[in-house]
Amino acid sequence: QRYETEAASGAASADVVMSSDAVGWLSFIANGDVEDYKDPNTPNLPEHAVLGPGVYSMSVDPVVAVFNKALVPEATQPDTMVKLAAMAQKLDKKIATTDISNVIQYGATSAYLGKYGEEGWATLEKIGPHAAVESSNGPLVTKLAQGQYAAEFFVSGTVRAFITDDVAKVVNYSYLKDGTPLLPRGVGVTAKAKHPNAAKVFVNWLLSVAGQEAACQGGFTPYRDGVTCDFGLPQVKAIVGEDNLIIGTYGKQLADQRDQIIARFNKAFGR
Hints:
Number of domains: 2
Helix content: 25-40%
CATH topology of the largest domain: D-Maltodextrin-Binding Protein, domain 2
Structural class: alpha/beta
Largest sheet: 9 strands, mixed
Oligomer: single chain
Order of helices and strands: HEHEEHEHEHEHEEHHHEHH
């Protein structure tokens, strides 16, 4: 929105935009705000890395499940959404997630439903009556560590970096085998960039092996082959299995189905 306002007035604005907001990107592309830049890295990238004309995935960041180990010991923690749903009544009001208006939550929910359809809805609707909803990840993890919540799902994978030292004694995270959507973090050169060549060099570097390794150091999840990272796409794949990977896209259906998904989610979670 800031870019569109500044570009419309002729003011200098961003040369590169990066965001995980799939619906926002669809609008940004439709409005002609992205240069259809074809990066030289493209032949070495997986198909899912190209999100739209001129828009590439910088990383594919997973959502995770997070548990309070004192309330749900590791040996009893569910490893699937289906198993979490089976525990929902026992964990009444001790389960939580973020609001569907949150970009990460909508992306995760829509990707999950894209793979599992009505079976996915049945799982969410079994969890919903027993779950709380927070506005963002900050309150989620804080309240989990304090014992207000025992289990959380579709939590932004960025929390992994904070589960260390004393927090790690109480809290752990896991990749649910049927519930770990990976959300692409799109990046693109803006149509009215004042420094388009510099912007393309930056995007080119982000998509290179070196750029992907730097993304890993920043807490993101790289996907390129040959990248050294403790929590890259291969590590997630090794846990959930290749057949269970849920990699989000920027398909038109995300915008078309948005109101319907939000309404049904809110009904399921008593919003």
